[in-house]
Amino acid sequence: MDREYPLIFRRDIYTDFILERDNYVCQNPACSNIDHLEKHHIDHDKYNCDTRNVILLCHVCHNRTNRLEEKEFWIKFYQQIMVAKYKKLSNYMKYKANYLMVLNDYLVAQERLKREYKIKLDKTK
Fold first, then answer.
1. Could you tell me the CA-to-CA distances from 60 to 51, 80, 92, 115 in Å, in that order?
2. Using only C-alpha atoms, what is the Rg of the chain?
3. How deeply is 90 buried, as exposed, middle or buried, from its count of CB atoms within 10 A (0-12, 13-18, 19+)?
4. How many angstroms separate the most distant Cα atoms in the chain?
5. What are phi and psi of 38, to 5 degrees?
6. Burial letters for 55-87: b for 16+ Cβ neighbours within 10 Å, e otherwise?
7. 0.85 exceeded by the pTM?
8. pLDDT of 73-83, one tens digit each?
9. Is 50 left (phi over 0), alpha (psi -120 to 50) or beta?
10. Can you tell me the distance from the alpha carbon of 81 to that of 73, in angstroms, rounded to the nearest whole number?
11. What are the start-end ranges of the E strands in 1-106?
């Protein structure tokens, strides 16, 4: 069974940031698709929601990243794109990215506390 995506990844504020940062277009330089856009975890770790690890791709380009024989190529390819992108990012967008990472840390801690509290409650029954 597939594990659920983290809360931050499912938040509109996070999605809106990725869309805005990537100009609502597939980030593969060989593609300019604006339809069927998806957020892609570059390192394939869906719990790594650092905004430098998530890139906007169209459905076709996203599917290519999951081919086992090409996986390492695409990881390096999109990591290089993100390094260049973050060098050019405005201070305002960098601030928003940092805010999202703080929000993510808060949501993760909140979920952990809920789980721990539930475990303690279950043990007292």
1. 21, 20, 31, 37
2. 17
3. exposed
4. 59
5. -135, 150
6. bbbbeebbeebeeeeeeeebbeebeebbeebee
7. no
8. 999 999 999 99
9. beta
10. 13
11. 37-41, 54-58
